[in-house]
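# nightly structure sweep
# worker-07 picked up a monomer target from the shared queue
# config: single-sequence mode, recycle default, output format = C-alpha cells
# input follows
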Amino acid sequence: MAYTLGVSTGLWGIEKPEELLGIPRKVGWVFTRGVTHAQIDLDRIVEFQEPDLKKKMERLRDFGFTYGMHGEALATGGIDTLPLASALQTDYWRAHDRILTHIKGASEIKSQYITIHTSESTPFILLGTQLQPAALVDPWGRNLKKLLEENKDILQWVVTEKEEGDKDFIWEFIRRRPSELKKIFLENYINRELRKRRPQTDEEAEKLYAELEKKYEKQAEDDVEKFFLDQISLSEPAYGSEKVAYYIVAKWMQERGDPLWQNIVGKKFSDDDFKNPQKTADWVPAVAAKYTWGHFSQDKVPGTFSKEEYEDPKPLLRKHNITWAFETPMAGQGNEGYIRLAKLSHIYYLCKAINSPYISWTLDMEHLLGCNLDPKKEIEELPAKGGELLKIVHITLPSPLNPSHQPIPLGSEIQYYIYERLWDLRRKGFTTGYIIFERGGGQDPVKQTVQSMRAIKKYLEANTAPKELPLEFFGMEKEGPDLALQEVKIKEHALDPIKGLLSIPEEEWTFLSRAATEKGKAEEWKKRQLR
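# output follows
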C-alpha cells in the first residue's frame, strides 16, 4: 500500500508565468521538480479546448507521468462556478452542468481524479442581506414545491402558526404571515357571498358571516398553501429566499431520519432552534451536504423528472475511472467559521452517503485553519475508519494567512508537523492515496519540499511512529558530517554561559587559530576550521 507523491502546477491567473499557459505546459513544469505526478490546477474550463490537447497529454503519459486535476474555485476565478450546496434553481443547473463539464474534460486527458471545493456559496447567515431569485429547488434539482406536494406534513408545518409570528423565519421573504394571508383570503370569500346574499339586518349578517367563515376556512387554508408554493417557484428577486429552502429541507431530513441528518446533526431541532442564528452551524452543514449529495444521486430521485432531468455523474466517473474528491474550501475574510460545509467529518459522511467507489475526499490543512478549524482536532473527530475514503492530502504547514503554500524544508518543524497529521490519518485508514504539495509563489516555490516528501513517504509506509523517526528523516546521517559538526559546535561553546566570570586567564584560541589571528586571518579561520 503506497503513497503517490506529486506537486501542483499552480495557476496562471495568480502571477501569469509563461510556463503555466495551458494544461500541457503546467504539467511539464511539474515534471522538472523531481516527481512523476502532477496536480493540474485548472484556471478555467476553456483550457480543455486547447488545440491538440489530447495528443500533447498522451505524449506526457508515454514518459510514465501521471496527473490528477483540481477543478475551478472561487478563490482563483473570483466566482463560485460550482455552487454545489445552492438551493437556487439557476445555481443548481449551473453547478450540475459544470460537474459534467469537469468530468468530460478530465476524461479527455485521462486525469486520475478531480478534487473540488465543497460549498463556496454565500454563508447561510448572510443570505438575508442579498437579493436572490425566489425560484427554489429540492436536493435533486426539482422545483421545491414538488417535494412539499409529496410530503404534506412538511407543507402543513410551513403554513401552520401555533402562535402569531412563530413561522416568520420562513415567511419573512414574502413579508406576510400565513395567518394574515388566510384572513385576507377568507375575507374575500365572505365579502363576495355577502354582496350576493345581502342580509337585511345586523343579526342576519353576523349569523351569515359565521356560517361563511366556517364554510370557507379550509379553502382559505388551501389558498395559503398554493400561494406559498407559487412564491417559491418565481424568478422574481427576494431577500434571503434560499434560507427558506434550507429550513424546509432541514425539517424534511429530520422528520424522515435522513442518514446525513443523523450523522451530522444527531438531534431534533425545534422551530426556536431553527431561527436561532447561533445554532445554524449545527444543522446547515447537513442541508448543504444533502444538496451536494443530490447532484451525485440522481438515480435516487422520487418518481420521474420529465423535463427537469439531470444526468447522474456516477456512471461517467465509473466509465472513465475517475475519482471525484470533495475538499474543504478556502474562506474569504469575514467568512471564517461560516462556510456551509467545511468540517472533515461532515465531508466524510457526505462521501459515505453517496456510496460510490469513485467518490472520496481531500484534506487541505491550510484550508481548515482558514475556516477557523483546527486540523489536529478535525482529524481526531473523524470516525475510526474515516481515512479510508480519503484520496488526496495537500501538505503544507497550516498558515493563518492562507493560501501561503510554504515550501517544506528538510528537517524542519513543518516537516514533522505534517508527518504527525499524516500518521494520525494513517491510523484511521489512509494507507494509500496522493500526497500533493501545492505550488506557492516565488522564484523557487518548491525548494526542498520533494526531499521532505520522500522522507515522509518512506517512513509512513514503514509504519514508523513520529517519536521513533530516525535522524535520516530529518536529512542527517547517524555518523555523518552534519552530526559531527553539531557536536564540535556544542563543545566549542559549552562554556559560553560562564564566559568572563572566571578568575583564571581565559583562552579563546588554539595554537593554530592564534597564529591565524596574529596574521589578521581570524575570519578566514572560522570559515575553514572544520573543513
